[in-house]
Design goal:
Chain A: It comes from Candidatus Raskinella chloraquaticus. Chain A: One of its GO terms (molecular function) is proton-transporting ATPase activity, rotational mechanism. Chain A: It is found in: Cell inner membrane; Cell membrane. Chain A: This is ATP synthase subunit b. The complex is a heterodimer. Chain A is an all-alpha fold. In chain A, 86% of the residues lie in helices and 0% in strands. Chain A is rod-shaped. Chain B has one domain (6-244). Helices cover 66% and strands 6% of the residues of chain B. Chain B has seven helices and two strands. Chain B has helices at residues 28-47, 57-77, 85-102, 114-136, 154-166, 168-198, 208-244, and strands spanning 12-19, 22-27. A two-stranded antiparallel sheet of chain B has the order 1-2. The longest helix of chain B is centred in the last third of the chain and has 37 residues, at 208-244. Chain B is globular, with a radius of gyration of 22 Å. The mean pLDDT of chain B is 88. Classes of the chains: A mainly alpha, B mainly alpha. Chains A and B meet through helix 1 and helix 2 of A and strand 1, strand 2, helix 1, helix 2 and helix 3 of B.
């Protein structure tokens, strides 16, 4: 190493510092810089100042600042998560309520339908019975009337036939008795009556 | 070839005076300490400027750094260790940034000086003793008496424990110092080979070899720069854990 490198003193302090400089210079060539004790004082002083400054900064500004941001974020995230959890619980509760209401509505609708069906069936059966009874009554009346008409008609048939036969016999034979004619009519009427 | 030791030279920027017999000067080392501290502060303040809920890249980086150290502290020293988080975070950032600044060509590696790493290690050592004595008083000495050791062997074990405790600041400081020093020397030597071989006529064809090595070493040194900061931090946490829970 040709160039002097140790303790380059500024011009202002050159005169005063020159002897020290020379000594340091010689020592600099002879020994290893990290083991030269003449620089230890300065290094320790500046280290104390610089590191003390950094420590103070970290304690007052650096660590609280970054730590604050981080804890804020962690708090925000956990807060958001718990809020989301709460919303989910609410939603599932609402869903349960809805399902329950739906089931209730279904059940009551089924009940209503059932009741309506039963009422209708009972109503229908009652009406049917009534109509049938009415019909049967009408039928009975009609049958009775038919029977009456028939009996009347049958009753008149004898008289008509008697008159008719009387007229025919009178025309053919003179004047038969009324009793003879009546007996003849009765016997002839008996025949078709049994045949029927 | 360039002197591989030259990069560790302390150069005075301004002489300020004397305290007793000790000359006090603002040096390149002090300059890089303040650059590291300034960069760390600027990084943490500017990156978190928006305090965004969804972080930007820079904010994400600041948060990752914070959480990395937080995990280390909580993992090694428990929740109580978080009381010392500002100190541990400062140590991590200071060592990390000074290590990385040393990787910049022309830069100065503050942590390549044993006095700096030893001072930081002593800070940790004293913090452990103060925290331990304040927190547990006489019981802090239980740290040296592991439970479940037979009586006849106990003196020996206690002696070993005391020696290992006292050697902590030395191992802590020498580990960091030696790693940075050795790495930078190796890097410088291999980089010097490239130049020497390049100027050596026919031998210039071999110069890519040390160049490739220097490139690889640079990557390795970046890893070491981070790793040593992490090792320093995690050991600090483990030592603090001893002070917080001395019962083994």
């Amino acid at each position: 190493m040709a160039t002097p490198t140790t303790n380059v003193t500024p011009a202002a302090g050159a005169a005063r510092a020159a002897p020290h400089s020379e000594v340091a210079h010689d020592a600099g060539h002879g020994s290893f810089p990290p083991f030269k004790p003449d620089s230890f004082g300065s290094q320790l002083l500046w280290l104390a100042i610089a590191f003390g400054l950094l420590w103070l900064f970290m304690a007052k500004v650096g660590a609280p600042r970054v730590g604050g941001i981080l804890s804020e974020r962690r708090g925000r995230i956990s807060g958001d998560l718990s809020e989301a959890e709460r919303f989910r619980n609410e939603a599932s509760a609402a869903e349960q309520t809805y399902e329950k209401a739906l089931a209730d509505a279904r059940r009551s609708a089924a009940k209503l339908a059932d009741e309506a069906r039963q009422t209708m069936a009972a109503d229908f059966a009652g009406k049917k019975d009534m109509e049938e009874a009415k019909l049967a009554q009408h039928l009975a009346v009609a049958e009775k009337r038919i029977a009456a008409v028939r009996d009347k008609a049958l009753g008149e048939v004898g008289a008509i036939a008697t008159d008719c036969a009387e007229a025919i016999v009178a025309k053919l034979t003179g004047a038969p008795t009324r009793d003879e004619i009546g007996a003849a009519v009765a016997s002839s009427m008996h025949l078709p009556g049994t045949r029927r | 070839m360039a002197d591989p030791i030259h990069q560790f030279q302390i150069e005075t920027i301004a002489t300020l005076g004397k305290i007793g017999n000790v000359e006090i000067a603002f040096t390149n080392s002090a300059l890089f300490m303040f650059i590291a501290v300034g960069l760390t502060m600027a990084f943490l303040v500017l990156a978190t400027g928006s305090r965004a809920l969804v972080p930007s890249r820079w904010q994400s980086l600041a948060e990752m750094t914070y959480e990395f150290v937080e995990t280390t502290v909580k993992g090694s020293a428990g929740q109580e260790g978080m009381r010392f988080f500002p100190l541990i975070f400062s140590l991590f950032m200071f060592v990390l940034v000074t290590n990385f600044l040393g990787m910049i060509p022309g830069g100065f590696t503050v942590t390549s000086h044993i006095i700096v790493t030893f001072a930081l290690a002593m800070l940790v050592f004293l913090a452990v003793i103060i925290v331990g004595v304040l927190g547990h008083g006489f019981h802090f000495l239980k740290l040296f008496v592991p439970s479940g050791v037979p009586g006849y062997i106990l003196p020996l074990v206690v002696l070993i424990e005391v020696i290992s405790f006292l050697s902590r600041p030395i191992s802590l400081s020498v580990r960091l110092f030696a790693n940075m020093l050795a790495g930078h020397i190796a890097l410088k030597i291999f980089a010097g080979f490239v130049v020497s071989l390049g100027a050596a006529g026919v031998w210039a064809v071999l110069s890519p070899l040390p160049l490739a090595l220097a490139v690889g070493l640079t990557a390795l040194e970046l890893l070491v720069a981070f790793l040593q900061a992490y090792v320093f931090t995690i050991l600090t946490c483990i030592y603090l854990n001893d002070a917080l829970h001395p019962g083994h």
